Amino acid sequence: MNDYCKKAIAELEEHLYFISLEADNTIQQAEIAVNAILQSIEKVKKQILKKGFKSQQEEIHFFKVLKPKFVSKLIYYHTIYNFETRKPNAGNKALQKFISNELESLKRFFDNNLEFYKYYRTGSCFLDHQYFIRGNIDIKLNIDSLYFETDKDFSTTHDFKVAKILANDLIQVYLESKLTKKQTTSKNIPLIEIPTHHPLKWTENKNALIELIYGLHTQGAFNNGKTEIKDIARYFEKMFGIELGDYYRSYLELRSRKISKTKFIDTLRDNLNQRMCAQDE
């Protein structure tokens, strides 16, 4: 079960990354991301309720480690959506006060949950059987009232608190960057980094990628066609961890092909059409 969840997390992170590339602004990105995360959580929930866990340790690992990864993303994007749609447009002072209040809210959560922060941050496990096993309720362990409104078959007393801790770390970075004016507009603010623990690897040859880059540049697919080819090439090099070398010379070689100048793009189109036709049958 945990292997299934790890795969689901990887797929979700990849999906969120592509959402960050396609969305027009931060608000749209957050809105689309929330819907994607909810769908992912629902799929995982169905699997959990259907198959259950092999042991208590597997259950603890899911609610302490895996589920919070999903829910923390939901909290994060929902918070950013609320921030961007509620922030004042009355000048820098009003905005800074608004951000300071949001940061103060994070601090209050930290202060109110200091003991659990210490337990979680130090990697303690002696109370895991109470915190992360379903149905174990001890109100002396600082249980949020939100727990009593959750689905008890898919929640423990403290899995949401872990998710909140993870989300607050990201939210704090986002708010502080706004406060220090490192980011000046809500447009094109990246809400997610390129995944590093399971990076995408380009496994076609370099000429195929260069062909794709030139095709996207010709189409004007980035920034309404105002992005230079060198900037697109650098971005793809960074994203895939690949050195394209003298891509212009490679492009000239593509142009000199006798049979198909766009071999990769043609194959890409044909394979996608075949996939769509097969799924329509």
From TrEMBL:
InterPro entries per the UniProt record, alphabetical: Tet_reg_excision_RteC
Q: Which Pfam families match?
A: RteC
Q: Which domain of life is it from?
A: Bacteria
Q: What is this protein called?
A: Tetracycline regulation of excision, RteC
> From which organism does this entry originate?
Flavobacterium limnosediminis JC2902
